Model the fold of this input.
Amino acid sequence: MQDRGDWGADPARYCPVSNNIKRRLIVHHSAGYRPRSSTEEKVTLRNIQDFHFGRGWSDIAYNFGAHRYLGLTQLRGFFCLNGANTPANDSTFSIVLLGHMSLNQITDEEKNVILDLADYLNIAPEACPGGCAIGAHQDISATACPGDSTMEWLNAGHPRPKACVC
Done:
């Protein structure tokens, strides 16, 4: 996992904490520009953090990022309460895909990052039946987030991409 320093994060203003068990990983998209390199992904994350600071928030809203080039990034991380899943911030983690996922396709790399994180957090459906799941922002709020291509994958049961036999 890339830590906050790897993408040039400014320090969080504060870190709200919740001791609740996190039962879901909620997927978002940034609904903006789709970065074409790891450098552009870092710049995009800093721009999102600046935008969220401008709204008076404590930090970038998401716990993690799933990226084509950087892989998994720590945004707020494991211990700071996310700010992206209202009204369920205290019982969920959030992960963001960069770009507008109705105009772009979610990649196998991004899918694997999400699935690997869910496995690590032990919230994959098979690890935690009866309410633990990978979900979409639109499952908890009136929004089109995380975009059409991500919803197609999530609605198909978020299958793991097949390994390339190259």
User: Anything to note?
Assistant: The chain is about 25% helix and 15% strand. The longest strand covers residues 24-29. Residues 4-155 form a domain with the Lysozyme-like fold (CATH 3.40.80.10).
